[in-house]
Design a protein that fits this description.
Transcriptional regulator, elongated, transcription regulation, 2 domains, DNA-bd_HTH_TetR-type_CS, 11 helices, DNA-binding, Tetracycline Repressor, domain 2
Protein backbone atom coordinates (compact mmCIF):
# COMPACT_ATOMS: atom_id res chain seq x y z
CA UNK A 1 0.00 0.00 0.00
CA UNK A 2 1.40 3.38 -0.99
CA UNK A 3 2.03 5.99 1.68
CA UNK A 4 -0.64 8.73 1.80
CA UNK A 5 0.47 12.06 0.40
CA UNK A 6 1.22 14.84 2.82
CA UNK A 7 -0.63 18.15 2.62
CA UNK A 8 2.49 19.76 1.16
CA UNK A 9 2.72 17.08 -1.54
CA UNK A 10 -0.96 17.46 -2.40
CA UNK A 11 -0.55 21.21 -2.74
CA UNK A 12 2.45 20.79 -5.04
CA UNK A 13 0.47 18.43 -7.27
CA UNK A 14 -2.47 20.84 -7.31
CA UNK A 15 -0.16 23.68 -8.34
CA UNK A 16 1.37 21.65 -11.18
CA UNK A 17 -2.08 20.54 -12.39
CA UNK A 18 -3.27 24.13 -12.30
CA UNK A 19 -0.18 25.26 -14.20
CA UNK A 20 -0.83 22.71 -16.94
CA UNK A 21 -4.42 23.97 -17.34
CA UNK A 22 -3.49 27.66 -17.32
CA UNK A 23 -0.53 27.35 -19.68
CA UNK A 24 -2.69 25.32 -22.09
CA UNK A 25 -5.43 27.95 -22.05
CA UNK A 26 -3.38 31.14 -22.09
CA UNK A 27 0.22 30.32 -23.05
CA UNK A 28 3.29 31.13 -21.01
CA UNK A 29 3.41 34.93 -21.22
CA UNK A 30 -0.28 35.48 -20.50
CA UNK A 31 -0.35 33.15 -17.50
CA UNK A 32 0.30 34.63 -14.07
CA UNK A 33 1.16 33.03 -10.76
CA UNK A 34 -2.05 34.58 -9.41
CA UNK A 35 -4.09 32.63 -11.94
CA UNK A 36 -2.30 29.41 -11.08
CA UNK A 37 -2.81 29.98 -7.35
CA UNK A 38 -6.51 30.68 -7.88
CA UNK A 39 -7.05 27.52 -9.91
CA UNK A 40 -5.01 25.42 -7.47
CA UNK A 41 -7.00 26.89 -4.56
CA UNK A 42 -3.87 27.86 -2.67
CA UNK A 43 -2.32 31.19 -1.80
CA UNK A 44 0.16 32.89 -4.08
CA UNK A 45 2.69 32.60 -1.27
CA UNK A 46 2.21 28.83 -1.28
CA UNK A 47 2.95 28.72 -5.00
CA UNK A 48 6.20 30.64 -4.44
CA UNK A 49 7.10 28.36 -1.53
CA UNK A 50 7.17 25.49 -4.02
CA UNK A 51 8.46 27.34 -7.10
CA UNK A 52 10.63 30.44 -6.96
CA UNK A 53 9.46 31.75 -10.33
CA UNK A 54 7.09 31.11 -13.20
CA UNK A 55 10.06 29.90 -15.24
CA UNK A 56 10.90 27.26 -12.64
CA UNK A 57 7.27 26.14 -12.45
CA UNK A 58 7.04 25.95 -16.23
CA UNK A 59 10.26 23.95 -16.51
CA UNK A 60 9.14 21.55 -13.77
CA UNK A 61 5.78 21.08 -15.47
CA UNK A 62 7.43 20.24 -18.79
CA UNK A 63 9.86 17.83 -17.19
CA UNK A 64 6.98 16.10 -15.46
CA UNK A 65 5.15 15.87 -18.77
CA UNK A 66 8.23 14.44 -20.47
CA UNK A 67 8.86 11.95 -17.69
CA UNK A 68 5.24 10.80 -17.74
CA UNK A 69 5.26 10.46 -21.52
CA UNK A 70 8.53 8.55 -21.54
CA UNK A 71 7.38 6.19 -18.79
CA UNK A 72 4.34 5.19 -20.84
CA UNK A 73 6.62 3.55 -23.41
CA UNK A 74 6.93 -0.12 -22.51
CA UNK A 75 9.89 -0.90 -24.74
CA UNK A 76 12.37 -3.11 -22.93
CA UNK A 77 14.53 -4.92 -25.46
CA UNK A 78 13.50 -8.55 -26.11
CA UNK A 79 16.39 -10.58 -27.59
CA UNK A 80 14.12 -13.40 -28.80
CA UNK A 81 11.55 -11.19 -30.53
CA UNK A 82 12.03 -10.03 -34.17
CA UNK A 83 13.20 -6.43 -34.40
CA UNK A 84 10.40 -5.47 -36.75
CA UNK A 85 7.79 -6.52 -34.16
CA UNK A 86 9.54 -4.68 -31.35
CA UNK A 87 10.06 -1.49 -33.34
CA UNK A 88 6.48 -1.52 -34.59
CA UNK A 89 5.26 -1.69 -31.00
CA UNK A 90 7.64 1.08 -29.97
CA UNK A 91 6.61 3.32 -32.85
CA UNK A 92 2.91 2.69 -32.18
CA UNK A 93 3.30 3.70 -28.53
CA UNK A 94 5.24 6.80 -29.52
CA UNK A 95 2.62 7.66 -32.11
CA UNK A 96 -0.13 7.35 -29.51
CA UNK A 97 1.67 9.86 -27.32
CA UNK A 98 2.31 12.26 -30.20
CA UNK A 99 -1.38 12.12 -31.14
CA UNK A 100 -2.63 12.98 -27.65
CA UNK A 101 -4.40 16.33 -27.60
CA UNK A 102 -3.07 17.35 -24.18
CA UNK A 103 0.48 16.55 -25.22
CA UNK A 104 0.15 18.57 -28.43
CA UNK A 105 -1.35 21.55 -26.59
CA UNK A 106 1.48 21.66 -24.11
CA UNK A 107 4.06 21.15 -26.84
CA UNK A 108 2.76 24.29 -28.57
CA UNK A 109 3.04 26.25 -25.34
CA UNK A 110 6.55 24.93 -24.68
CA UNK A 111 7.82 25.67 -28.17
CA UNK A 112 6.36 29.18 -28.18
CA UNK A 113 7.87 29.93 -24.76
CA UNK A 114 11.33 28.65 -25.61
CA UNK A 115 11.43 30.47 -28.95
CA UNK A 116 11.11 33.77 -27.10
CA UNK A 117 13.65 32.79 -24.46
CA UNK A 118 16.82 31.06 -25.71
CA UNK A 119 18.05 30.78 -22.12
CA UNK A 120 14.95 28.82 -21.13
CA UNK A 121 15.35 26.55 -24.15
CA UNK A 122 19.01 25.85 -23.34
CA UNK A 123 18.17 24.97 -19.74
CA UNK A 124 15.44 22.55 -20.75
CA UNK A 125 17.60 20.89 -23.38
CA UNK A 126 20.34 20.45 -20.79
CA UNK A 127 17.93 18.90 -18.30
CA UNK A 128 16.49 16.54 -20.89
CA UNK A 129 19.99 15.53 -21.90
CA UNK A 130 20.72 14.31 -18.39
CA UNK A 131 18.92 11.06 -19.11
CA UNK A 132 18.58 8.88 -22.18
CA UNK A 133 15.16 8.29 -23.61
CA UNK A 134 13.82 4.74 -23.56
CA UNK A 135 14.08 4.40 -27.33
CA UNK A 136 17.79 5.22 -27.18
CA UNK A 137 18.26 2.58 -24.51
CA UNK A 138 16.42 0.01 -26.65
CA UNK A 139 18.68 0.78 -29.60
CA UNK A 140 21.74 0.50 -27.39
CA UNK A 141 20.59 -2.94 -26.19
CA UNK A 142 19.87 -4.16 -29.72
CA UNK A 143 23.30 -2.94 -30.82
CA UNK A 144 25.01 -4.76 -27.95
CA UNK A 145 23.11 -7.92 -28.94
CA UNK A 146 24.54 -7.72 -32.47
CA UNK A 147 21.16 -7.10 -34.09
CA UNK A 148 22.06 -3.65 -35.46
CA UNK A 149 24.95 -2.38 -37.53
CA UNK A 150 27.45 -0.01 -35.86
CA UNK A 151 25.68 3.27 -35.11
CA UNK A 152 25.33 6.17 -32.72
CA UNK A 153 22.31 5.19 -30.56
CA UNK A 154 21.30 8.76 -29.79
CA UNK A 155 21.51 9.85 -33.42
CA UNK A 156 19.67 6.74 -34.64
CA UNK A 157 16.94 7.34 -32.06
CA UNK A 158 16.47 10.92 -33.26
CA UNK A 159 16.24 9.68 -36.85
CA UNK A 160 13.55 7.11 -36.03
CA UNK A 161 11.51 9.60 -34.04
CA UNK A 162 12.00 12.23 -36.70
CA UNK A 163 10.33 9.95 -39.24
CA UNK A 164 7.26 9.82 -37.00
CA UNK A 165 7.20 13.48 -35.99
CA UNK A 166 7.55 14.75 -39.55
CA UNK A 167 3.95 13.72 -40.25
CA UNK A 168 2.39 13.20 -36.83
CA UNK A 169 3.70 16.04 -34.67
CA UNK A 170 5.19 19.06 -36.40
CA UNK A 171 2.30 19.69 -38.82
CA UNK A 172 -0.13 19.59 -35.87
CA UNK A 173 2.00 21.77 -33.58
CA UNK A 174 3.30 24.29 -36.11
CA UNK A 175 0.44 24.50 -38.62
CA UNK A 176 -2.61 23.45 -36.62
CA UNK A 177 -3.36 20.43 -38.77
CA UNK A 178 -5.69 17.79 -37.31
CA UNK A 179 -4.40 14.58 -35.77
CA UNK A 180 -3.88 12.07 -38.56
CA UNK A 181 -6.18 9.07 -38.98
CA UNK A 182 -5.45 5.64 -37.53
CA UNK A 183 -4.87 4.27 -41.04
CA UNK A 184 -2.36 7.01 -41.83
CA UNK A 185 -0.64 6.43 -38.51
CA UNK A 186 -0.15 2.76 -39.39
CA UNK A 187 1.34 3.72 -42.76
CA UNK A 188 3.80 6.10 -41.12
CA UNK A 189 4.75 3.54 -38.48
CA UNK A 190 5.35 0.79 -41.05
CA UNK A 191 7.39 3.12 -43.25
CA UNK A 192 9.51 4.41 -40.38
CA UNK A 193 10.25 0.92 -39.05
CA UNK A 194 11.21 -0.50 -42.43
CA UNK A 195 13.39 2.50 -43.31
CA UNK A 196 15.17 2.27 -39.96
CA UNK A 197 15.84 -1.46 -40.29
CA UNK A 198 16.87 -1.15 -43.94
CA UNK A 199 19.56 1.27 -42.81
CA UNK A 200 20.64 -0.20 -39.50
CA UNK A 201 19.44 -3.81 -39.25
CA UNK A 202 22.24 -6.37 -39.14
CA UNK A 203 22.14 -9.12 -41.76
CA UNK A 204 19.60 -11.77 -40.81
CA UNK A 205 18.58 -9.99 -37.64
CA UNK A 206 15.37 -8.28 -38.77
Amino acid sequence: MSKPLTLTERKRIAILDAAVAEFRLHGFDATSMDQIALRAEVSKRTVYNHFSSKDELFATMLMQLWNTSASTLDIAYQPNMPLVEQLTKIAAQKMSMLSDGNFLDLARVAIAATIHSPERAQEMIARLGEREENITLWIRSALADGKLKPLDPLFASSQLQGLLKASAFWPQVAMGQPVISAEKQRQIIDGAVHMFLACYGADGAV
